[in-house]
Structures are given as structure tokens and as C-alpha cells.
Specification:
eight-stranded antiparallel sheet; two-stranded antiparallel sheet; 10 helices; about 35% helix; globular
Length: about 400
């Protein structure tokens, strides 16, 4: 088993912006907006400051700008309506953790960020608005995902693939919306002194570089899923699912780069030259009063995704639920919580999970030990069944394909 090449590859340093306080009026602006200086940062400090809530409204508008993620609408034409597709089914998954028709979301508002100085608690949201994104037309949202929208589901290659496909479609949609929102956020330096303008643009330049790299990856991932969706061939797709003996207080849908495993090992390092990064998808939902977590990926049986799944498989049955919750807070903001569960956690455990949710940001560096078992307990649920395309032997050098 060879280590992923990113572990020894050179770090890609984002090209820094070079601020210039005064430029020729028709020179390209130093902030890299693509505009001439005269129509961008010339006399920026004299402009009327933009209200932070205007910025938030613009960003939300980008999230509402929908399209259908079906790979070939010319072959199978879309319906005229773009639907607010649920990444986690409303009936079953969200309903299983809802209280009075509401769940908690970890996605903050601008207002909560300001009021808490960047430390907002999860907030209430109606189940009708939770986990939605306008990423499919009503026709394809129904026809593609019908096998995983019922009261029960059988986990096999076909259904696990659909969970993974929806997660990849959501992540691509979210990345594209982030990219479109950067110019909106760039207006936040209006009316600010030059030094503050530079700080804001430096931050956005770094964020933009990460978004563009991530979008290249997720587009490559989705192309692999699109090919398999259209052909019906699931070769190369791998999955690992766990059924728990009760409903966990969280549901989620996400796709991410597996960087660390549950035993404190580094699997791959991002922003490295010459490396194609692996992904893994994860959907956590409920059927028949039991939670099912489904991992899926396209890749080798000894790569970072398979190694992450294998390290999870090696955990004790009564530790898997706690590990899963930590992983979700570490890797995604598309997670939803039962309010009474969150309120019942100790302050220490709430802070632990909130800290994990900031990992990989300017506020908190991700640690290789973030997923290691420290004995913290969030729930009493136990894993009772594993369904997998792999034989997940934690002592083996790599997972072996099932017969």
C-alpha cells in the first residue's frame, strides 16, 4: 500500500495580491477583480459603506439561483420547475429528529456572527427549509432519487450510489454558489481605510484560490458519477454503510476530501502540486426508526477514502456513533441536529463540536488527532450492522473487495 502522493508533494502557495494605494485609472485594479482601477478601488475609502446584511442577502440570492444537475438534459429533457431538493429526505430523515417541525442548523447568519463575535450556537430552522438546494428540476429530483425516498431502503451498490450522487451534486452546487458570491463579499471594503481594504482583499483572495481548487476537484468527481449514472455501470464505486440500533440526533449529506482517519493518521494533504485528491461522500439519515450512515467513493481500495472507511470500521460498536458525530462537525455544515439533544450536551461537549466545525479555517488549524477517540460520549447508540462493497478488515493493509 503506497502513501498518497500529496503527503510528500510541494505545497501550492496562492499567488499573493500586490496592493497599490494609487494606480493609473485604466490599469487593472490591484485586487484582481478584473475591473480597471478607476471603476474599482479608486477613492474606495470615500464610497458609502455596504451594509453587512446586503452582503448576506446577495450571497443567499446566489444560493437560490438554481439549475438541474442532471448530466444530459438533451437526452432526458428537464421539467420547467427547479425544485428545492432535499439532500436529506424530509419524511424519515429530518422528521426523525425534528421537534415541533424544527431542527437546528450549524450554518450561521451574519447577525448571529456579529452578536456572538464569531461564536454562534446552532439555530432553529423549519424542516421544510432544512437541507434544501435548487440543484435539480422537479422531474429529475423525483426520477433519480425515488429508490431512496421511501419509508425503507435496502443498501446495495445502486442505492448507495444514489446517496453519493446527491451528495456530490450538492457539494458542486455549493462550491459554485461560493464562487459567485466572492465579488459580493469584495464590496465589504467600501468606505474603509486602505489598510482595511487590503486585509479584506487578502482574505478573499486566499478563499477564492481554495474555492477554485475545490471546484476543479468536485467537477472531476461529479463527471465520474455522471458517467455511471447514465450508463448504469457502477464499476469503481465503493460504499460502506452502518446501521445503528436507534435514531441518532443528527442527519447530514456531504462530500469532502478525507484528510485524516480515526486513528490519527494523515491520509492526504490538500493544496499540493501534482496530486489528484480523493473524495468520500457521507449521508446520515433515518429509516424505520433507525439511523443509517452511508459512505461512498469512486477510487482505489487502498486510497484515502477506503482508509478512512476502514479506520471507522475498526472502531468498537459503541464508539462509532460518537466518531460519526465528530466527523460530521469536522467536515460539513450541511448537518442538522435535534434541539433537545444539543441543549442537553454539556458546555464542554458543545464547545468541542463547535471547535471541530471551525477546523480548516483561519480560526482553527485542522489537527491530525481531531478524529482520534478521546472517550467523549455524545449518544448511547450502537452500530448493529455493516453493509459494504469491501471487506473492512482493520488489520489488513487495505480493504478487499467482496466476492
Amino acid at each position: 500500500m503506497e502513501a498518497h502522493p500529496s503527503l510528500s508533494a510541494q505545497f501550492i502557495e496562492p499567488e499573493p495580491i500586490r496592493p497599490v494605494e494609487a494606480m493609473g485609472p485604466y490599469e487593472p485594479c490591484w485586487c484582481r477583480s478584473g475591473k480597471k482601477y478607476k471603476w474599482c478601488h479608486y477613492r474606495r475609502e470615500q464610497e458609502k459603506p455596504i451594509n453587512i446584511f446586503e452582503v448576506e442577502a446577495g450571497m443567499l440570492a446566489e444560493l437560490r439561483a438554481g439549475y438541474c444537475s442532471h448530466p444530459d438534459p438533451s437526452d432526458d429533457p428537464c421539467s420547467t420547475t427547479i425544485t428545492r431538493a432535499h439532500t436529506v429526505q424530509r419524511r424519515g430523515g429530518l422528521a426523525a429528529i425534528a421537534e415541533d417541525g424544527h431542527v437546528l442548523t450549524v450554518k450561521p447568519t451574519m447577525k448571529s456572527m456579529i452578536e456572538t463575535q464569531g461564536n454562534p450556537a446552532p439555530r432553529k430552522i423549519g424542516v421544510g427549509n432544512a437541507s434544501v438546494f435548487p440543484g435539480f428540476c422537479s422531474k429529475h429530483d423525483t426520477t433519480i432519487f425515488k429508490p431512496i425516498e421511501g419509508k425503507t431502503v435496502t443498501i446495495d451498490a445502486s442505492t448507495a450510489f444514489l446517496f453519493a450522487y446527491r451528495a456530490i451534486a450538492y457539494e458542486r452546487f455549493a462550491k459554485e454558489a461560493q464562487l459567485r458570491s466572492v465579488p459580493i463579499q469584495a464590496e465589504m471594503d467600501r468606505g474603509k481605510p486602505f489598510r482595511t481594504q487590503v486585509q479584506i482583499q487578502f482574505y478573499l483572495n486566499s478563499a477564492l484560490a481554495g474555492i477554485k481548487i475545490g471546484l476543479v476537484d468536485v467537477n472531476r468527481w461529479k463527471a465520474g458519477y455522471d458517467e455511471r449514472l447514465m450508463s448504469g455501470n457502477r464499476d469503481g464505486f465503493r460504499y460502506f454503510a452502518i446501521r445503528f440500533d436507534s435514531v441518532l440526533p443528527v442527519v447530514a449529506c456531504c462530500a469532502f476530501h478525507p484528510e485524516i482517519d480515526f486513528h490519527g493518521n494523515q491520509l492526504q494533504r490538500l493544496a499540493r502540486r501534482g496530486s489528484e485528491f480523493e473524495h468520500i461522500t457521507l449521508t446520515v439519515t433515518a429509516f424505520e426508526r433507525e439511523t443509517i450512515a452511508v459512505f461512498g467513493w469512486i477510487g482505489p481500495d487502498d486510497g484515502p477514502a477506503a482508509l478512512l472507511a476502514r479506520s471507522f470500521s475498526g472502531l468498537a460498536a459503541d464508539r462509532k456513533a460518537d466518531a460519526l458525530i465528530k466527523l460530521l462537525f469536522l467536515q460539513s455544515d450541511n448537518i442538522f441536529l435535534r434541539q433537545s439533544w444539543w441543549n442537553g450536551l454539556t458546555e464542554q461537549n458543545q464547545k468541542l463540536l463547535q471547535g471541530l466545525s471551525k477546523s480548516g479555517t483561519a480560526e482553527r488549524t485542522r489537527k491530525v488527532s481531531d478524529l482520534a477517540d478521546d472517550g467523549t460520549t455524545f449518544t448511547t447508540a450502537r452500530a448493529v450492522e455493516v453493509i459494504s462493497s469491501e471487506q473492512m478488515d482493520p488489520e489488513a493493509g487495505s480493504p478487499k473487495a467482496s466476492a
